[in-house]
C-alpha cells in the first residue's frame, strides 16, 4: 500500500505540475470548446482557492505533527544540524582571515551540510571517509601534479587527463564492490573529487600544499563540529536503533502468535464471536512491517560499526548477530503471511475435530509467542534469555500433544478430509513456526553470550513451568516439581557463571 | 547469508585494522610473554606475505571479473563517468578564463562527480534538484543578504545567523517527509548549502549576482555534460531496469512452481530419486532474491519518474503498477518460503494417498508456473497477457480435481491423519499460491491496458486449452472445442480493439 501512497502524494505536491504541458493543453481545449463554462469553473476554483490552500496547510501541519510525534528525535536532529551550521557560518563570518565567497571557508559549511546525518554512526562514517579520502587524494594529486609537470607544457594536460580518466574509471567501478559500497562509497566519491580538483588546479606544488592545508583544516573544523554535536547533544546511535528494531520486531511476532490461537479458534467460543471481532486486531497486522526491514537493518549495522562504544554497547559489539536474528525474524514473518490466509477463512471442520486440535494448537501458538516475548524483553534489558526456555519446552510439548490428538482423531473418524484441511494446514504451519522460534532463540542466546548480557534470573520465572521436557505430563498436577527444577536451574546458572568469569558484565 | 559475508569481507579489507588498538595490544602482550615465539611467527608471516598478497590479488581480480560479468553496464558506466570528468577537467584546464583552484571551475568538477549516477533517472533527479535548488537558494540568499544589510553592521550577522538557523532546521525536518525524501531530498540538501554559502558570503549584492551567474553557469555546464553522456552514451534506464526486474522476478516464481511438483512427488517416480537429486536445483532457490526487492523497486520507480519517454516507455508510463506487481510477487514468494519447508521432508504418507493427490497438485503447480511464465514473457515482450488465461483456468480446474480426489480419499480411508499432514499442507499452500498468481495476473492485465501493450495473439496459444471454465471436463477429449473458443477469443479481441482505438500502440 505504501508505495502507491507515496506516488500519489508526491504527484499532488510536485512543483513540476505547475509546468505540466498536459494540463495546459487541457485547459486550452476547454477554453475553445465551452468558454463560459470554463470561466465559471475557473471562478469557482479561484473562489475555492483560499479554502484549498487552507485545507492543504492544515493537512501539511497534521503530517508535520505526526512525523514529529512518531520520532521526536527528528526535531532534535533538525535543531542540531541548524546549530552546527549556524556555528560554522558565524565562525567564518567573524573570522578575520575571512576573504569572501569561494575561499576555503565554504568547505566548512559544505562539510557540515553534507556530513551531518541522523545517526552518530552515519555522521562518523561520512566524516571519516571525507577526512581520509581528502588527505589521500590530496597527497596523490600533488604527486601527480609534480610528476606530470616534468613532461612540459604540452605533455602535462594530456598526462593529467589520462590520469584522471584512469583513476575515475577505476574508483567508480570499485563502488560496485559490495564491501566498498557498504562502507567506503562516500570516501571513494570524495577521493575522485579531491584528486581531480587538485590535479587540474594547475598551481605550483608549494602553493597547492598551502591550499590543501587550509582546506583540510576547514574540513576538519566542520567535521569536528558535526561529530561533537552529533555525539554529545542528544545522540542517536545507529547501533541502539538496530538493537531496538530487532527487539521490537521479535515483539511484533510475539503479539501475533499470542493472539493468533484465540483469533483462529474464536468461532468455538460461546457465541460472542461478534464482540471478539470488534476487538482491536492490530496485533494481527503488526508483523507486516517486519517483512521488509532487511535494508534498514543492514545499513544500521554498517553505521553501528563506525560508532564508538557507548552505554551497554562495547566497541566490538556483535552487530552481525543482529543481522542473523533479522534474517530469522523475517523467515518467521514469511510463515505468518502464509498463516494469515487462514484467519478469516470459514472454518468448515466439525466442532468436534476442531476441539481436538484446538488445545495443542492454541498452546503451541501462545507458548511460542511467550517465548518470543521473553526473548524480546531479554534483548531490551540485555539479560540472558533464560526465561524463554520454559516456553520453548512447552511449545515442544504442545507439538507432541497435537500428534496424540491427531492420532486419536484419525482412529475414530469418518472425518471429511476436505473440511479439515484448513485447520490441519494451520496446525502444520504453526509447527514450522515453532521450529523457527527455536532458531531465533538459539541466535539470541549466542548474542547474549557474545555481547556479555547480564545473567540475572528474573523473579517472574518462578511462576513458570520448568525446563525439563515434560511431554505428556499434565502441567496442572505438579506444582512441587516446578519448585525443585527452578532450584536446579539456579544452581546451573551459578556454576556457569563461575566457569566463565568474564561473562557477567554489568551495563 | 549475504549480510554476514559482507561484514566478514569488509573486516578483512578494512583499513581501520591497521590502527586497531586491540590487535596492537595483543601483539604487545605476546611480545612480552613469548618473544621468540612471536619473532618466529612474525618471520613466518613475513615469509608468507608475498603468497598472501598474491592470493589476495587473485581473489580481488576474480571478484572484479565477476562484478563486471554480472552486469557489463557497470564497466561502461565507469568509463562514462571518467569521460565526463576528463572532459570537464580539460575544458577548464584549457579555458583562458581559468584562474586556478577555488575558482568557479571547481563547481563543474564537483557537479560531475556528485551528480553522475548509474541510471539516467538518478542522474536527472540529481541534476534537476541541484539546478533548481541552487537557483532558488541563490535568489533567496541574495534577498536575505540585502534585507539584513539594512540592519547595519551589528544586527546583520545576528539576523543572518537566525535566518540560517531557522531555514536549516525547517529544511532538515522536511527531509523526513516520505514524499520529499523520495524525490527532493538532494535538492533540499543543496538548498541549505547554497543558501548558507550565499548568505554568509558577506559580499555586496551586485558582486554576489555576478558570482552566482558564474557558478550557475558552471554547474549547468557540468550537469549538461552528465545528462548528455548519461542519456546518449549507452544509457541505463531505471524504468527499463524496473520493468525487467519485475518480469524476471515473476519468471523466478514461475521456475519454482514449474519445478516444485516434480520435486516434491519425486519419491513416487520409479526408484531413480538419486539421479533426480543430483539435478540442478537452483530453480528452487531463485525465488529467494524476490523476497527482498522492495527497496530496489521503490527507488527505481522514483528514478523512472524523472526519465523522459524512451523506447516503449512513454512519459506517463504507469510505474506505480510495477510496484503493485512487486508487492504481489513478494506475497507469492512468502508462500514459497512456507512451502519450501516441505520439499525435503520425509513424505510419510502412504503412496496410495500421495498418488491420489499427486496429479492435481502437480497440475496446479505446473499450470500456475506456466501462467506466471506467460505473464513474465508478456511483460518482457510488452504484449497483452492473453496466453496466461488458459493456464490460470487449468490451475483452477486442478483445484476442483484436488477436491474430488480428497473427497474420494476421505471416503475410503482409515488413513492415518498425522502421516498425511505434510502432503495436505503442501496442497493447501499450493491452492493459496494459485490465488496469488491470479492476483498477479489481474494487475499485469491492468498494466498491459494502461501502458498500451501490443495486442498480439501468440501462435503458441493455439496449442493450449481454451478460456472457459472446464472444471471436470477432461482436457484430452475436446480438441474441436478448443478451436472454436480460440476463434471466439480472436473476435472478442478484435472488437475490444475497435472499442478502444487509442489502445493498440506499437513500440
TrEMBL record, chains A, B:
It comes from the Eukaryota. The chain crosses the membrane at residues 75-94, 106-125, 132-152, 158-177, 184-204, 216-238. It is found in: Membrane. One of its GO terms (cellular component) is membrane. It is a multi-pass membrane protein. The keyword Transport applies. The keyword Transcription does not apply. Keywords: Ion channel, Ion transport, Membrane, Transmembrane, Transmembrane helix, Transport. GO terms for biological process: malate transport; monoatomic ion transmembrane transport. Signal peptide: none annotated. InterPro entries: ALMT. Belongs to the aromatic acid exporter (TC 2.A.85) family. PANTHER family: ALUMINUM-ACTIVATED MALATE TRANSPORTER 10 (PTHR31086). This is Aluminum-activated malate transporter like.
Amino acid at each position: 500500500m505504501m508505495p502507491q501512497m507515496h506516488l500519489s502524494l508526491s504527484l499532488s505536491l510536485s512543483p513540476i505540475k505547475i509546468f505540466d504541458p498536459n494540463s495546459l493543453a487541457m485547459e486550452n481545449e476547454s477554453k475553445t470548446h465551452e468558454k463560459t463554462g470554463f470561466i465559471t469553473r475557473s471562478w469557482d476554483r479561484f473562489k475555492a482557492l483560499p479554502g484549498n490552500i487552507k485545507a492543504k496547510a492544515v493537512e501539511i501541519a497534521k503530517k508535520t505533527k505526526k512525523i514529529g510525534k512518531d520520532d521526536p528525535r527528528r526535531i532534535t536532529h533538525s535543531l542540531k544540524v541548524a546549530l552546527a551550521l549556524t556555528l560554522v557560518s558565524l565562525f567564518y563570518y567573524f573570522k578575520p582571515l575571512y576573504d569572501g565567497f569561494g575561499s576555503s571557508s565554504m568547505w566548512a559549511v559544505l562539510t557540515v551540510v553534507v556530513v551531518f546525518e541522523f545517526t552518530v554512526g552515519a555522521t562518523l562514517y561520512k566524516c571519516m571517509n571525507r577526512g581520509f579520502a581528502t588527505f589521500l587524494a590530496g597527497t596523490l594529486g600533488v604527486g601527480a601534479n609534480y610528476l606530470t609537470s616534468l613532461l612540459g607544457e604540452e605533455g602535462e594536460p594530456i598526462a593529467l587527463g589520462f590520469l584522471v580518466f584512469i583513476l575515475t574509471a577505476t574508483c567508480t567501478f570499485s563502488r560496485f564492490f559490495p564491501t566498498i559500497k557498504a562502507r567506503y562509497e562516500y570516501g571513494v566519491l570524495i577521493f575522485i573529487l579531491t584528486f581531480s580538483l587538485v590535479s587540474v588546479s594547475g598551481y605550483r606544488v608549494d602553493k597547492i600544499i598551502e591550499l590543501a592545508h587550509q582546506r583540510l583544516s576547514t574540513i576538519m573544523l566542520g567535521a569536528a563540529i558535526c561529530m561533537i554535536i552529533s555525539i554529545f547533544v542528544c545522540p542517536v546511535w545507529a547501533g541502539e536503533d538496530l538493537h531496538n528494531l530487532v527487539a521490537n520486531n521479535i515483539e511484533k511476532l510475539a503479539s501475533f502468535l499470542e493472539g493468533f490461537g484465540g483469533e483462529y479458534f474464536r468461532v468455538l467460543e460461546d457465541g460472542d464471536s461478534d464482540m471478539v471481532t470488534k476487538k482491536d486486531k492490530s496485533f494481527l497486522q503488526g508483523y507486516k512491517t517486519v517483512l521488509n526491514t532487511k535494508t534498514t537493518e543492514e545499513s544500521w549495522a554498517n553505521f553501528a560499526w563506525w560508532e564508538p562504544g557507548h552505554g551497554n554497547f562495547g566497541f566490538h559489539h556483535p552487530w552481525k548477530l543482529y543481522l542473523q536474528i533479522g534474517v530469522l525474524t523475517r523467515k518467521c514473518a514469511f510463515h505468518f503471511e502464509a498463516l494469515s490466509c487462514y484467519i478469516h477463512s470459514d472454518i468448515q471442520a466439525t466442532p468436534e475435530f476442531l476441539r481436538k486440535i484446538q488445545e495443542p494448537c492454541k498452546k503451541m501458538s501462545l507458548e511460542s509467542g511467550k517465548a518470543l516475548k521473553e526473548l524480546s524483553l531479554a534483548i531490551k534489558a540485555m539479560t540472558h534469555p533464560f526465561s524463554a526456555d520454559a516456553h520453548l519446552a512447552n511449545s515442544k510439548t504442545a507439538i507432541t500433544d497435537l500428534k496424540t490428538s491427531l492420532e486419536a482423531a484419525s482412529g475414530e473418524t469418518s472425518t471429511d478430509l476436505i473440511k479439515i484441511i484448513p485447520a490441519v494446514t494451520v496446525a502444520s504451519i504453526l509447527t514450522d513456526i515453532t521450529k523457527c522460534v527455536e532458531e531465533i532463540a538459539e541466535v539470541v542466546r549466542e548474542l547474549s553470550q557474545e555481547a556479555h548480557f547480564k545473567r540475572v534470573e528474573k523473579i517472574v520465572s518462578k511462576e513458570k513451568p520448568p525446563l525439563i521436557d515434560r511431554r505428556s505430563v499434565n502441567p496442572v498436577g505438579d506444582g512441587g516439581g516446578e519448585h525443585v527444577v527452578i532450584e536446579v536451574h539456579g544452581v546451573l546458572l551459578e556454576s556457569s557463571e563461575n566457569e566463565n568469569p568474564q561473562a557477567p558484565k554489568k551495563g
